[in-house]
Design a protein that fits this description.
mainly alpha; two-stranded antiparallel sheet; single chain; Serine Threonine Protein Phosphatase 5, Tetratricopeptide repeat; 2 strands; 75% helix
Length: 391
């Protein structure tokens, strides 16, 4: 009973202590807010109301009144950069770096922001030089990410590999897919310069970095073909099926050409038709359609397209059916069919595009790196209409 009374008497005491602590915190907060320049709140209000121009004017006034305020310089420089006034942003951050009393952490911060200004302005050499100064600073990881962007823009793939490996080893996230893509870029350049053996060595490294790299597998087949080993190339291209079934459409023409070259075109058609049954694709239909016409005739090609239309009704498929119909259409209906096909084709030209899953950028051809957002492997290997039908 005595214990319970003691607990009741202690409640007001602890409540009083909490009230005093809260009052102390509030008084400190009020004191700090009074010490802030009035223009700070004006600028903050303009930012919240999406008025960056007026916010910049307010922050400029504060910097004039208190030139020692490093944080305000950072805010002002970032606003200039976001608005595209990179020259003014560069001057702000250069002025900060010129201060002899700037603490080392803020100096590194200013160095990083200056590098971002150069990057935004397209001054890649200066940006690279600035970011390289940030080794062994708290901004090293951010600087390496920026350097990775620079080397990709400049197509310096070996440097990009070194930076990506460094980032991965530092625990800043997995970079296997990017590293594999960089090796693929080097391999593709080697193939262009008729160096298939060099390309194969680079592609082995790409597959070591990312065993699921479809592009590395496709290019490995290309390198084997360039070395004159068509059978090996066919077997390599067939491995794409095990990595990603939808991507077989990207190697369909290569496979068909390879089987023709070794004298087994029917085997190639049968293989591609099995792929078509597993993962329908307008690009795959295109290749199979032409091969069936060549080997089995127009009627067989028409039947192929009709079956695909039943499974996946798309305008792209209808356009292909009309093309088959026109091949053996009687003269009195040929003109009408031609008019319908031209009308359908106008619409299919808008639908027959690939679309980046990250930024939505559309393109007529397939890209491994999106031209819009520069991200890797964000293009599904299907046209937009096919994706809409699937969804």
């Amino acid at each position: 009973m005595e214990f319970e009374i003691w607990m009741l008497l202690g409640i007001p005491f602890f409540f009083g202590l909490g009230w005093i602590a809260a009052r102390v915190d509030i008084s400190e907060l009020v004191s700090e807010s009074r010490s802030l320049p009035r223009g700070y709140f004006k600028g903050l209000n303009y930012l919240l109301n999406d008025q960056p121009d007026k916010a910049i004017d307010s922050f400029i006034e504060i910097v004039k009144l208190d030139p020692e305020s490093a944080d305000m310089h950072f805010a002002l420089g970032n606003l200039f950069r976001r608005r595209g006034e990179t020259e003014r942003a560069i001057r702000v951050h250069q002025n900060l770096l010129a201060r002899p009393d700037l603490p080392s952490e803020q100096k590194a911060h200013a160095q990083y922001e200056l590098g971002m200004d150069y990057l935004k302005a397209g001054l890649l050499d200066r940006a690279e030089e600035t970011f390289n100064l940030l080794v062994d600073t708290p901004f090293e990881v951010q600087a390496r990410r920026a350097l990775l962007e620079i080397y990709q823009r400049e197509k310096e793939w070996r440097r990009a590999i070194d930076v990506a490996v460094g980032l991965q080893e530092s625990g800043a996230g997995a970079r296997q897919k990017e590293i594999a893509q960089f090796y693929c870029e080097l391999a593709q350049d080697a193939l262009v310069h008729l160096q298939p053996s060099d390309a194969m060595q680079l592609l082995d490294k790409a597959l070591q970095a990312d065993r699921s790299s479809v592009r590395a597998t496709i290019l490995s087949g290309d390198a084997q073909l360039a070395q004159g080993d068509t059978e090996a190339a066919i077997m390599t291209w067939r491995r794409v099926e095990h990595q990603s079934v939808p991507h077989v459409a990207l190697v369909a023409q290569r496979l068909m050409d390879g089987y023709r070259k070794v004298g087994r075109p029917q085997e190639g058609v049968n293989l591609l038709r099995s792929y078509l049954a597993e993962a329908s694709s307008i690009d795959l239909i295109e290749v199979v359609f032409k091969a069936v016409i060549e080997l089995d005739g127009v009627e067989a090609a028409k039947q192929l397209v009709i079956e695909e239309l039943r499974r996946n009704p798309t305008l792209l498929g209808l356009d292909k059916l009309l093309e088959a119909r026109l091949m053996d259409a009687p003269a009195h209906v040929w003109e009408e069919l031609s008019m319908v096909k031209n009308l359908v084709q106008r619409y299919t030209q808008k639908l027959a595009r690939y679309q980046c899953s990250h930024c939505g950028f559309k393109a007529r051809q397939f890209y491994w790196q999106c031209p819009g957002c520069s991200r890797w492997e964000t293009y599904p290997p299907r046209r937009t209409e096919e994706l809409n039908v699937m969804n």
